[in-house]
Amino acid sequence: MTSSPTAHALSARDLVKRFGGVAAVDGVSIDVRRGQIVGVIGPNGAGKTTLFDMIAGEQRPTSGRIELNGVAVERASPDARLAHGLGRTFQIPRPFPGMTLIENVMLGAQNQSGERIWPNWLAPARVARQERACRDRAMDLLRFVELEKLALSPARILSGGQRKLLELARALMAEPSLLLLDEPAAGVNPSLLNTIVDRIVTINQRGVAVLVIEHNMDVIVRLCERVLVMAAGRLLTQGPPAEVVRDPRVIEAYLGGATA
């Protein structure tokens, strides 16, 4: 995993994202320490996904600062953020349907010599060794998410929950120190949901910090030691899940008045 003397895998300050005159995110600050699982909840349209997009580099903040493992990345590309330890999954998984599961996972590997032209000509043995190591690691990750029996099957055959597990394996291939999970429980049947939650806990125990958007409050309570609540682009409150769910402001803005 990416190493750094800072205690924070993520530190974001005063993030703002405006679309015309509308602030989708308005002055949000967030820290995720190494070893933490932090949740982000809020009603639809609260700005959660926009916040994730800014952290991941899919959108550039109008203003504010983002540090990954102590390095300022608010102007860095998504690929550059991978190099600083960031991994991400999406609410709707994006596998390559015609490729096998193991090929999909191998795409997450970073700094492979075979991706460049000259090493294939000048150092074919090294390229072959890296390819074997990459394939072995991809199989280990498929085994971790309990999809190894489908390793040579095309991704198009997978259920929604299995696609989320595949995307998780692909994100782990890059050995992130911070993992952004966008609605990992959405559309997942109960048996696979337990597998997903269990794997997230194990990933965290191995040293990966996790920031998760989730509407399923049972999952949030099971996973998170701290929860941030967003409403109308702003941070409404934060704290332990058991306290947050009793906060009258949260009940009004989210639990009682929003569509999950």
Write structural notes for this entry.
By secondary structure, the chain is an alpha/beta fold. It has two domains: 8-95 and 158-255, Rossmann fold (3-Layer(aba) Sandwich); 101-155, no CATH class. The chain is built from ten helices and ten strands. It has helices at 48-56, 78-83, 101-106, 117-122, 124-144, 160-172, 190-205, 217-223, 241-244, 248-255, and strands spanning 8-19, 22-33, 37-41, 63-68, 71-72, 86-88, 178-182, 209-213, 226-231, 234-239. It has a six-stranded mixed sheet, sandwiched between helices. A four-stranded antiparallel sheet has the order 2-1-4-5, covered by helices on one side. Helix 5 (124-144) packs across helix 6. It starts with 7 loop residues before the first strand and ends in a 5-residue tail after the last helix. The mean pLDDT is 89.
